[in-house]
Structures are given as C-alpha cells and as structure tokens.
Amino acid sequence: MSSSTISNYRVSADLIKASRDAVLNMTGKRLNLLADYAELDLCARFNMELCLKTNNPGYDAVDSSGKCVQIKARAQGKSTKPHTINSTPDHQEFDYYLFAFYDNEYNLVEVWKMARDKQSEVFPDGAKHGNRNRMEQVSECLFSISSPTH
Questions:
Q1: Locate the DUF6998 domain: which residues (predicted)?
Q2: Angle at CA 12, nearest 5°, toward 9 and 17?
Q3: Structure pTM?
Q4: For residue 99, which of 20, 42, 43, 141 sits 20 to 30 Å off, Cα-Cα?
C-alpha cells in the first residue's frame, strides 16, 4: 500500500478496533498504525523480510544478509522533529536499529541506522527513551527527504 493510499483513510474508533482484531488474528501482532506501516514500508524499501509472528522478540525484520533489525517509527510535524526516540529492552536480541521518521501524511522523512552496540550511548542505564540528537551522532543516515544523496 503506498503512502498516498494510506493517507486517504479516515479512521473511526470502530474501524481501528476491527483492524486491530483482524491483524492480531492474522499475524499475532497488535496493531499500531505507524509502527506497522513503517515495518512494511522499510521492508519494501530496504529489501528485508518482515517477521509476521511475535515469536521473534526484539526484532521486526531480517535483512538480506541475515541480520535482525529492530524498527522504530515516530511521526513528526512539518517543521518539528521529535526530540526523543524509543528503545527496546536490553535483553532482546537484534543486530541494529532502523529509526524511521514520518510526517503526518505517512511520508517518509528520514531513516537512521544504529548498531546495537551503540544502544547504551543513546539509552543510558536501560532508559526507554533516548535523545534523538545523540542517536544521530552515532548512526548512519540511510535516507533523508531533504538530502537526495542519501
């Protein structure tokens, strides 16, 4: 489903509940519109295989070289960036993060790749939230709408 298609939906509480239940029954995963959309979008963009069941705690996808990927997504306004990013518990196994930032229309704005071994630098003492600026310092920008070279 393209970003232009998904942005045309007008969602009601009943539709969200029905969708959540259907997705849970089909995939074993709970519905989080942005998170689920980001997983599908990044898997398509970066040639990764989505893990459909929840029996892969700690990672959402497997890349073409067999590495386990934890995908995190945040929405941002047109002129503002979110200041925090979310973490994954230390005990979960994966090789790297992909942090994806979308605008309010589900258009991809940026994707950052951060190695798992940098987690403690961004999320000190196992914190659930980290500083986005610190993440950018220890990560590689894979895509930016403002920079066509990425």
A1: 32-121
A2: 110
A3: 0.73
A4: 20
DSSP conformation class of 126: G
**Overall CATH class of domain 3-144:** alpha beta
User: How confident is the model at residue 9, as a pLDDT?
Assistant: 31
Q: What is the pLDDT of residue 7?
A: 31
Q: How far apart are CA 95 and CA 122, in angstroms?
A: 16
Instruction: Give me the residue spans of the domains in the chain.
Output: 3-144
Helix, strand, coil content of the chain in percent (nearest 5): 35, 25, 40
**pLDDT means per 10 residues in the chain (150 residues)?**
32 54 82 78 92 74 96 78 72 90 84 94 85 93 77
Do 86 and 131 meet the contact criterion of CB atoms below 8 Å apart? no
Tell the burial category of 148 from Cβ atoms under 10 Å away from its Cβ (0-12, 13-18, 19+). Answer: exposed
- Beta carbons of 102 and 74 less than 8 angstroms apart: yes
